[in-house]
User: Fold this.
Amino acid sequence: MLIGTARYTALDELPHVANNLEALKKLLCEPDLWGVHEANCRIVADPAHVPDVVEAVAKAAQEAKDTLVVYYAGHGLLDEKLDLHLTLTDSQPGKVDYTAVPYQHVRKRIHESGARRKIVILDCCYSARAEMTGRSAPIIDKATISGTYLLTAAEDAALAVPGETYTAFTGELVSLLRKGLPGGPELLDLDTIYRTLREMLASRSRPLPHSQDRDQGGDLTLVRNRAVTQPDAPEARAEARHRVAAIRDARAVGRRASAAFLRRNKLPNHQLIYVRRALDRDLATVTRAVAPGALERLTRRRTFRHRGEQAVDRDVPPQIVLVLDPPGSGKTMLATQLALADEAFFCVARTADDPGVHELNEVLRDLGGKDPLDLLVETGMPLVYVVDGLDEADNPESRRAIVQLLKTLGKLNAAADRRRLLAFPVLLVFTARDDTWERWISVFEGRSVVRFKDRLARFSDEELGQALTRYSEAYQYSLVGSRTPDGTEALSVPFNLRVLSEAYEFQGPVRFGDALGENVLQQYFERRRSNIAAQGISGLTATVFMELAGDLALAAVRTPEARIPEQTALRLIAERSPRLRGNEREVLGLLIAEQLLRHDGTGALRFRYPAFIEYLVALTAVRSPGLDRLEEVTEKVAAAPEVSSAAVRRNVRSLARSMPPEVARQANTVYTTSPTYVTANLTTFRSDLGRGTVTAAEDLETIHRTIGRMSPADAWEAFFVVVAKPNGQPADRVVYAFGHAWDKNSRRPDRWRLLEKIGERRVLTDDEVVERIAGSRRPREWEVFLAWLSTYPERSAVAHRLRTSRDGDLLAVFREGGLVWDQVTGLFTLALNDQDYVEGVLFGSAAYAPTE
Assistant:
């Protein structure tokens, strides 16, 4: 939508604007640049009335499905509140409110558009010094729309030079589109266009443009770069049209191949709520490295001191990406975004449990016929093949399919090598839960992999601001009140924000304090209870719904991979209430419609998020008489890798607060005496510590009480949780955990690692530690102990105590031990003599003669 006002009755005329509109339309319709159909590139010239602009934008916004571009050129005016207005032919500076178009009206229509990409270009004048007045936000902030890239001509007055064909800003834009950017990328993204225009205008001492991007839309491509494609001859133009058609057809094939994934996973409002993250940018970088143009087997020359100049092949870029993040962090939303993207790549997305996930060759044949490599080279675009949810496909069949997929990649690379490419232009992107990744390590071992870990787990401050805006607008509620640290921390977890938004949809103002962790799920299920009860299904009351949800959650933790066979779900519905018999499928359909359950593509059902299971089993346990089901729940959850026992315990603790005090005491007794619970979560505790999350005091208490009954491997893991500095455990508990881990792991060759941690915590000279090292017969353990002891002021006293702690002279025993004990002998002698040890010094019979 190209809008411009050239003729005015009360303002200076801008004849350049008419030229702007015609030139931009001609360029945008060129097939080698964008190829917009002329009917979809409309001009509104010299509008006289507000509806001429607003209704035209509204119509374009409603019709646009993929990309909406709104361009305006003319005078820009500010009202008394410093709000931007776009001028009409009869606009008057002193009567802005009713003779010009308030930009907020245009902004609203653009925001309401279902287009995935929204681009606003404003080539207009305004006195944009609002940020200096303290009365309002900068004009560019007022113009910004969530999900839109905004490009403006100038901070103050835009420039139209008499005698020139176009206004200053649009003139440089037209020149860039027409000639291209030498040395630039094949596809010009919005940030590249902005930076280039800024340099071009600065070199001519003209007003500088500005840009703003609420959701990192600067990565979006606008047009092709003519300096790369150079389609000047008719043959080249025909080739460009063919390339456009090939890209369009291939994208359609990719969408069809992704259809099952998108039907299963795409949220109805995905485009409205998706927030581009830093990871999106990093993935774009990795993807560009496997584009056909980047894979040409060109050599670079290097100069060697003795061999002169030689040609050296470039390294093959990684073709496998692993995205490892906690449940509910947005991995599937990322996969959905890639599948929907119209970027500089083709994409197919599938779930890891899809029976056809290994059929990469078939996808390529559908994309490009007999030789898909020709298509990828011709279009200059790689294929991104996304496999979502490895953690949900941990079974022999799926594992074989993934192995087959990786073998296919190897064969494709061999074919590309024969075509003088470094590799086949394809990128495999796998997503998985970070706490289940260990099961897949062997499959990817030895391969060149880019691993992104914990990149989606929390929104950054900037991302959270964007997310709050997008979610509140999409779900039509608003957070009010002071932003508390706890609330901010809770909502920085994408899952929490998504569930909170669903819980408060259409609610209007919501106190920020209600955004705290456990309250999110409580509010969510309260809302679901109300929705279910309103359906009028006989026998399905709010209470029955919650009981049934608990039954299904327990069924999930009892089955492999938390899958519930459909027949099992129907049986549980019938068993929950006699009045539901005969309506089982209607009830099941309602649970799916309410987004509690989903079909997983194998004929089974899954809960939409593991957190739903964790909340529901906790609720079932605390509501059972005498908490008699808590033991069962603890054991079942511990055996279910898809569910976090620690999260269940947090929910139990939260729910117990609203019950009689004895419920909380009983629950605490069960957990603090349950080795099953704590051993199931040791890996999670260590993973959380790596992300900066301290272990709950209740969990540390459980470790302390049960470590004596743990297996050697579990006691080892438990020690590293206890000794972690963020957990702040007292010295006696650290030593207690050390003693059990040391004694139980006497056969571990790396037992010395325990001493490293003990040394760091400054409890190395505790009697329990000294007693255990005195009984060691391993040189490595003594070396670590004595190296740390050298940093303690009481080193000499401890060394003398150790020297006489065994039969005979300990120093003599070390000397008689041979060469492997030389380092120990030297370190021990230094300690005896209260001498400092210089790190890195090696002792030996020829290098050091110990003195007494």
Observations:
- Confidence is low (pLDDT under 50) at residues 127-146, 298-312, 845-852.
- The CA atoms of residues 127 and 156 lie 5 Å apart.
